[in-house]
UniProtKB/TrEMBL annotation:
InterPro entries assigned to the protein according to its UniProt record, in alphabetical order: NACHT-WD_repeat, NWD1/2-like_WH, Quinoprotein_ADH-like_sf, WD40/YVTN_repeat-like_dom_sf, WD40_rpt
Coiled coil regions in record: none
Keyword Metal-binding tagged: no
PANTHER family: BETA TRANSDUCIN-RELATED PROTEIN (PTHR19871), GH25853P (PTHR19871:SF37)
Domain NWD1/2-like winged helix-turn-helix residue range list: 90-193
Gene3D superfamilies referenced in this protein's UniProt entry, alphabetically: YVTN repeat-like/Quinoprotein amine dehydrogenase
Entry protein name: SFRICE_012175
One Pfam family here: WHD_NWD1
Keywords: Repeat, WD repeat
The keyword Transport is assigned to this record: no
């Protein structure tokens, strides 16, 4: 350790050779382990042999030979015959003795056939594979048994048991050589004269040739060997073995090997990636020994090396990242030379699987590490460009963004990927609620202000200030909103046009509200009361301005930060937890038409996000164990379970027209965004951006995603390509929007709102001045009054 930690840096230190005493200990221990009749002292000849060759593997081989007894081969040898212990002076000779001993026990031809297949395979063979292959070999068939291939099922278990110290089985059950030295000895012994024939046998098996021929003489199982068994399960063994076997067939003709379907057909590449990962495919590319590499191999290598994180996360991004790589080559001046790549260019424009692809013109700059910092807002630090993205329900293709630090509000066209309006100088905007497609209510510090986004003008400031920690508000109708008061003891109904308070909803004396939820149509208001125990939910009708229900569960609290209400206010769902038990929280659903508990769902782990859809009649919950559950609002049953995230999906967004869900993790432990079909429960597409997501929204039925990323100046518009998804297509048609935003003469304009803020400040100062003058007058009157009272009292005395 002193050498490794020296000032000169770490060095390679050769381990000292194993001593005679250690070799003897290995021999004794392994002999006891391998013996079936109990531990016995090794023969003197074996002890002397390990004194000369102290390699541990050499000692293990001798121990295995010593442990063999006649009981292992009762059918093949005499009952009292013990295999002779043959001792060689070197390791290579002793390795050969393992194979010779096995051949003597089970027959040389059968052992050669089995071990040649095992040695020629890339990552071993499992029991079903080797039995399928042996069943079609005359050497392992018999007409005397009930099943003609019965001898194969008898020989292979015997062989596996005999060689168990020298074989290892991986997680999927495939047997392969435990030691590379023994694998090399087996290859020299069994593949020297039949390497091509054995590999052809493996190729025929994995390509399903026997299944296609359907020869009556083939008495074993016939497997069709498609690339995919189902939508989620791939033929991993075939996709992994075939390139390796063809490499050995075409070892002398690397050009032919480089043009095999494994490298030229994108559907095969996609399936291989889905079944394995980038490292497995790069292993296949490493088998192409050409300099320079062919154009299509070079492109694939670039894709898998540059985008390995996104591709290993989810294979569905392959076509999008391939398109990005090929467009990058075109920008760098590389001309397409081969017909293979020309065919790829056509295929990636309309990929065979749904693919999300960013449409912003300059987005490629942030994808390249060399230009990443030059394109960011500041050097050296990650910047949060946009804090919030809000969609306009009345306009399907427009979103508004809020940037608190830069004090600006923008409107974007996500179809054209361009900025439509920009307002700067907005005082510390935190939240935005659209009134219609042009007007909105913005929370500026602790004040609510109304702006016209089309004209870029400030309209009115609502009276009063919001609570600093809980500035909650929601829209009642186009001219009114409800807002939680500063002291959180009541809710104000405010007139948006005049800024005045119309009426007040009071929860009661010394009751403090901690949430505010308004239905989509603005008729129902739900608030949580943190004062009383158990924690109640207060439900008001904003139409009649009356308290409808006081909902509560004994010994439970509502976590009102995780709540949702249907558009028409029929149901409200909220996360609840037991006060005295450390059990996971659960979901409760109330029917607001009757005020009764409708359903209680306990998924078994904490719920981190909730969304509710009136159109689809379901509640969507994101769980801490990365699952997403879709609950039926009619039957109360769990309709779907969506899996794929690697962190808790704490941000859920439903398409306005229903049928599509977008999910991501707002803590960015999972960097990707996923698009789901709520009708079928299938994953539509995945996109992994190069930077962390700060906000996101789904538009036009899921055909476009709007993402706000760190270190990127624009809203990233990600569009869905590929085969038509029915739920997305229906939503796109329902939300179709081809109109321009407001006054076309103002498109792309930037408005400075600082002037209106200065006017407000001067008005406030004048108001304060008038209040100060009034206060001074009142103080002088009070002093004069007090002085007169004292004089009167003095005269009276």
């Amino acid at each position: 350790m002193a050498v490794l930690s020296s000032e000169d840096g770490p060095k390679v230190v050769r381990a000292p050779p194993v001593g005679p005493d250690e070799a003897k200990a290995v021999l004794t221990a392994c002999a006891a382990t391998y013996s079936k009749t109990g531990a016995a002292s090794p023969p003197e000849a074996a002890v002397k042999a390990v004194q000369k060759c102290t390699l541990p593997l050499y000692a293990k081989i001798l121990a295995w030979q010593i442990s063999l007894s006649a009981e292992t081969f009762t059918e093949l040898t005499e009952p009292e015959t013990t295999p002779e212990l043959v001792i060689c002076e070197d390791l290579e000779g002793q390795l050969i003795q393992i194979l010779i001993t096995t051949e003597a026990a089970l027959g040389a031809e059968r052992v050669k056939t089995c071990l040649a297949l095992l040695t020629a395979s890339r990552r071993g063979l499992d029991d079903t594979e080797i039995l399928d292959i042996l069943a079609h070999d005359d050497l392992f068939r018999s007409e005397e048994t009930y099943l003609p291939w019965a001898p194969a099922s008898l020989v292979w278990p015997q062989l596996a048991a005999l060689l168990s110290p020298w074989l290892r089985w991986d997680a999927r059950g495939a047997a392969r050589w435990r030691d590379a030295a023994l694998a090399g000895a087996a290859a020299d012994r069994y593949l020297a004269d039949c390497d091509t024939a054995v590999r052809r046998t493996l190729i025929d098996y994995y390509e399903g040739k026997w299944y296609s021929e359907n020869d009556p003489k083939m008495a074993g199982r016939l497997v069709s060997q498609e690339n995919k068994f189902s939508e989620e399960y791939y033929n991993t063994r075939k996709l992994d073995e075939l390139p390796f076997q063809h490499y050995h067939i075409y070892k002398d003709d690397p050009t032919t090997f480089a043009n095999q379907p494994y490298f030229t057909q994108l559907d095969w590449v996609h399936d291989k990636l889905a079944a394995t990962d980038c490292c497995h495919f790069l292993e296949d590319i490493a088998l192409v020994h050409l300099d320079p590499l062919p154009e299509h191999i070079e492109i694939l290598k670039d894709v898998f090396e540059t985008h390995s994180y996104a591709l290993d996360y989810d294979h569905r991004q392959f076509y999008g990242l391939l398109r990005m790589t090929m467009e990058k080559r075109q920008r760098n001046g590389h001309q397409i030379k081969s017909k293979i790549v020309q065919d790829w260019m056509k295929e990636i424009q309309e990929p065979p699987v749904p693919t999300l692809y960013p449409e912003n013109v300059d987005f490629w700059k942030i994808m390249e590490c060399k230009e990443k910092r030059d394109f960011s807002m500041h050097d050296g630090f990650d910047t949060k460009t946009y804090d919030l993205i809000v969609r306009f329900d009345s306009r399907g293709k427009f979103v508004a963004t809020v940037s608190t630090e830069r004090e600006e509000i923008c409107v974007w066209d996500v179809v054209k990927c361009q900025l439509v309006r920009k307002m700067v100088g907005v005082t510390h905007p935190i939240n935005l609620v659209p009134i219609d497609e042009y007007k909105c209510v913005v929370l500026c510090r602790r004040e609510l202000r109304v702006y016209n986004l089309d004209q870029g003008t400030f309209l009115v400031a609502l009276k009063g200030v919001m609570n600093q920690k809980m500035p909650y508000y929601g829209l009642h109708d186009p001219t009114h909103l409800v807002a939680l008061s500063r002291n959180r003891m009541y809710v104000n109904l405010m007139n948006i046009e005049t800024g005045d308070c119309v009426t007040t909803f009071k929860a009661g004396e010394d009751r403090f509200l901690n949430s505010l939820l308004v239905s989509g149509d603005g008729r129902v208001l739900v608030c949580g009361d943190e004062t009383q125990k158990p924690f109640p939910l207060l439900v008001w009708s904003l139409t009649s301005r009356k308290l409808l229900y006081d909902l509560r569960i004994p010994h439970h609290d509502f976590i009102t930060s995780k709540a949702a209400i249907t558009y028409e206010g029929s149901y409200v769902c909220v996360v609840s937890r037991e006060l005295d038990e450390p059990s996971p929280n659960f979901i409760v659903v109330y029917d607001l038409q009757s005020g009764t508990l409708f359903k209680k769902w306990k998924p078994g782990c904490d719920t981190v996000a909730l969304a509710i859809s009136s159109i689809d009649g379901c509640v969507v919950s994101g769980l801490a164990d990365t699952r997403i559950l879709v609950w039926d609002l009619v039957t109360g049953n769990c309709r779907l379970t969506l899996r794929g995230h690697v962190a808790a999906p704490s941000m859920l967004r439903l398409a306005k027209s229903g049928g599509v869900l977008m999910s991501t993790d707002d803590t960015c432990k999972d960097l990707s965004v996923r698009l789901w079909d709520l009708h079928t429960g299938k994953l539509i597409a995945v996109y992994t951006p190069p930077e962390r997501i700060t906000s996101c929204e789904v538009l036009l039925g899921g055909s476009v995603l709007a993402l706000a990323l760190e270190n990127y100046k624009e809203v990233l518009c990600v569009k869905l390509y590929g085969p038509t998804v029915e739920s997305v297509q229906n939503g796109k048609e329902a939300e179709f929007d081809d109109r321009e935003y407001g006054d076309q003469n103002l498109e792309g304009r930037t408005f400075d709102c600082r002037d209106s803020r200065i006017v407000e400040t001067h008005s406030a100062l004048r108001l304060v001045g008038s209040f100060s003058s009034a206060n001074h007058s009142a103080e002088r009157a009070l002093v004069s009054f007090s002085f007169n009272v004292k004089q009167t009292r003095a005269k009276g005395t």
